[in-house]
């Protein structure tokens, strides 16, 4: 019980820090804290494999990708601008939406508060215990094989998309001449200039 | 020792709405993407809490799927940000208005 509330405070504080940090690098650090706390929470919910995946995939891959992009983009003339945000324009509708959502939240909590997580049916980590890696893997490769294959498809589509975008950036799309890519890049720069004016 | 399921719902909802506020308010596309990651993780927390409450590991499998989707989304989103904002001085989503009509 106490660990839940400690982790909950860390999760909410780091989430607020993520969206309010002045520089994206600080946001990445806050998000890292958030993901680490979430991984601990997953262990308390006996999702061992997902806790490890949370650290490896989120903290190890996605956040490092964010750091790379921040380094790539901010190497230009000026640092990131925080700029004026949109809060003055949207606070009224957003406030209404959040109040309605909190109403639903109170309702959901009052409805679901009776169901407490059950204790595991054996020692944590052993095979044939809910949430152990063996249990998860067995389910993933037998009953839930289709979702697993869909995962592979999603990753392949993502890889093809990213390669296409990267080739466009370099102007090396097969079947397109180099000057066409140059024209396209000039157009993109013009669009950004127009927006800034 | 058991934590009521409603508390997990409350925690995940608060995290999700912090993410929503981040996407709406911030103009830096990188921080908007990170807010989307927050929302993904709030959903994941609920999947895993419900899986634990009813001892069904389908919830964990779905959380695994969500993590994959989040990774794909981050890769493509960051690639789009890099291709769009490479020539720009400031990284600001309000500067891109081509689809505004």
Report on this structure.
The complex is a heterodimer of chains A (197) and B (101). Chain A has helices spanning 2-20, 24-44, 48-73, 87-112, 133-141, 145-170, 178-196. Chain A has 197 residues and is mostly helical. Chain A is extended. Chain A starts with a helix and ends with a helix. The termini of chain B are far apart. At the A-B interface, helix 1, helix 2, helix 3, helix 4 and helix 5 of A face helix 1, helix 2 and helix 3 of B.
Outline of the structure:
The complex is a heterodimer of chains A (about 200) and B (about 100). With about 200 residues, chain A is mostly helical.
Q: Name the average pLDDT of chain A.
A: 78
Number of E-state strands of chain A: 0
Number of domains of chain A: 2
Domains counted in the coordinates of chain B: how many?
Answer: 1
Outline type of chain A:
extended
What's the overall average pLDDT of chain B, rounded?
Answer: 85
- Number of helical segments with 4 or more residues of chain B: 3
CATH-derived topology of chain B:
Helix Hairpins
Produce the secondary structure layout.
The complex is a heterodimer of chains A (197) and B (101).
Chain A: H1 2-20, H2 24-44, H3 48-73, H4 87-112, H5 133-141, H6 145-170, H7 178-196
Chain B: H1 5-25, H2 29-54, H3 58-85
Q: Tags for this entry?
A:
heterodimer, A: 197 residues, mainly alpha, Four Helix Bundle (Hemerythrin (Met), subunit A), 2 domains, B: 101 residues, Helix Hairpins
């Amino acid at each position: 019980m106490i660990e839940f509330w400690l982790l909950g405070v860390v999760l909410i504080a780091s989430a607020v820090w993520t969206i309010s940090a002045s520089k994206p690098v600080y946001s990445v650090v806050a998000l890292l804290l958030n993901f680490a706390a979430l991984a601990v929470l997953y262990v308390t919910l006996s999702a061992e494999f997902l806790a490890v995946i949370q650290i490896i995939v989120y903290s190890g891959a996605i956040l490092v990708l964010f750091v790379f992009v921040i380094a790539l983009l901010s190497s230009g003339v000026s640092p990131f601008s925080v700029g004026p945000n949109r809060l003055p324009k949207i606070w009224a509708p957003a406030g209404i939406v959040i109040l309605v959502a909190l109403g639903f939240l109170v309702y959901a909590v009052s409805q679901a508060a009776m169901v407490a997580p059950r204790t595991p049916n054996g020692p944590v980590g052993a095979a044939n215990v809910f949430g152990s890696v063996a249990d998860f893997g067995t389910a993933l490769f037998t009953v839930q094989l289709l979702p697993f294959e869909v995962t592979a498809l999603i990753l392949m589509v993502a890889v093809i998309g990213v390669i296409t975008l990267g080739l466009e950036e370099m102007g090396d799309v097969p079947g397109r001449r180099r000057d066409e890519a140059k024209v396209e890049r000039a157009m993109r720069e013009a669009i950004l200039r127009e927006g800034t004016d | 020792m058991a934590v009521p399921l409603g508390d997990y719902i409350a925690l995940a909802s608060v995290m999700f709405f912090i993410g929503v506020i981040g996407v709406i308010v911030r103009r830096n596309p990188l921080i908007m993407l990170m807010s989307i990651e927050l929302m993904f993780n709030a959903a994941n927390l609920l999947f895993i809490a419900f899986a634990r409450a009813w001892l069904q590991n389908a919830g964990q499998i779905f959380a695994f799927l969500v993590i994959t989707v989040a990774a794909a989304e981050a890769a493509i989103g960051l690639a789009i940000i890099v291709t769009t904002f490479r020539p720009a001085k400031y990284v600001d989503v309000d500067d891109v208005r081509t689809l505004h009509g």
